[in-house]
Amino acid sequence: MTKSFSNKLGQGGYGDVYRGKLTNGRLVAVKFLKKSKGNGEEFINEVASISRTSHVNIVALHGFCYERKKRALIYEFMLNGSLDKFIYDQEPSSTNRNLEWKTMYQIAVGIARGLEYLHRGCNTRIVHFDIKPHNILLDEDFIPKIADFGLAKLCKKKESIISMLGARGTIGYIAPEIVCRNFGEVSHKSDVYSYGMMILEMVSGRKNIDVRVSHTSKIYFPSWIYKQLEPGKDFEFHGVVTEEEKELAKKMVLVSLWCIQTVPSDRPSMTRVVEMLEGGLEYLQVPPKPSLASQTRSPQHVSPISSSSSSSSTA
Fold first, then answer.
1. In a 10 Å sphere around its CB, with 0-12 CB exposed, 13-18 middle and 19+ buried, how is residue 231 labelled?
2. Is 81 in a helix, a strand, or coil?
3. Is the fold of 8-76 the same as that of 84-301?
4. Which residues form the Protein kinase domain (predicted)?
């Protein structure tokens, strides 16, 4: 299928991804898992959750392999790879800003629709817990699809609170309540936080925790973005030319800032996020500054959690 692993598409802590072709000619991406927690928990998580989905903004699983220690997942092939390759200005691998602002906005709406489906459209609610640019794949038309469900949790729709023994997520996208329960209970609202951070990265063209910035005030960048929204300041967006582009960019920023509110109940549901993105800018207010955003944080002060991102939302 992969011609002896001749075409590697990418790699991560979980293993490597190769391009493959089925006997019917369909192109696929084959992910081989090198390491697995416990008794293959991440692999089982991924198969159990993604096999329950069918949505234009969720990557399709065509099959899997589970033979002794060999574990592989076979996905639909996504021509444009992952979102991170397009959004960071200073990354060597970035092909950034080939994306028009209208395309960026459509990607933001598509991801929101995918999360809304996971939270409300499935028979069983799925909380992803790892929403970040690396886990958003883009097809040939730049339609976004949510991928990598290794950290996902399934829960009954009536359940809003999720119990977890340990934190899970990727630094920079983890909701506060996942690190410290004093901020609130872990729920699908945690995915909303991760989504908000990711969209802010798309708008700003930089990672939300960036050791290369010279001014400490810019290290935790939501604080910097709030300063740009102060009265009298003209928020300038990279590559914005027309008024329509400026409106789309500002709408993405305001919605994102609502999504990263410190208290989970203050964040909108993904249904509401879609409504705000598709509604008029005149109906959006600048949200209150999250308490975390008022603090200057440096990377070494961030909780040393690896893995993947946050949970999700419904109001």
1. exposed
2. coil
3. no
4. 3-284
Please state the residue numbers annotated as binding site for ATP. Answer: 31
- Among 3.10.20.880, 3.30.200.20, 3.40.50.300, 3.40.50.1820, what is the CATH number of 8-76? 3.30.200.20
Catalytic site residue 130?
yes
Confidence (pLDDT) at 169: 75
C-alpha span between 49 and 147 (Å, rounded): 11
Report d(CA 81, CA 47) in Å as an integer.
21
- Domain spanning 84-301, CATH architecture: Orthogonal Bundle (1.10)
Under a CB-based contact definition with an 8 Å cutoff, are residues 277 and 115 in contact? Answer: no
Burial of 113 (0-12, 13-18, 19+ CB in 10 A): buried
Task: Name the token pair of 195.
Answer: 């989504």
Quick: pLDDT tens for 73-110. Answer: 999 999 999 999 999 865 545 444 568 999 999 999 99
Residue 109: other Cβ atoms inside 10 A: 18
Q: d(Cα 127, Cα 119) in Å, to the nearest integer?
A: 7
Return the domain boundaries, the chain: 8-76, 84-301
| Residue positions forming the annotated binding site | 31
Task: Give this prediction's pTM.
Answer: 0.84
Q: Which of 130, 141, 234, 266 is catalytic?
A: 130
pLDDT tens digits, 218-273: 445 677 788 777 776 776 777 788 889 989 999 999 999 999 999 999 999 999 99
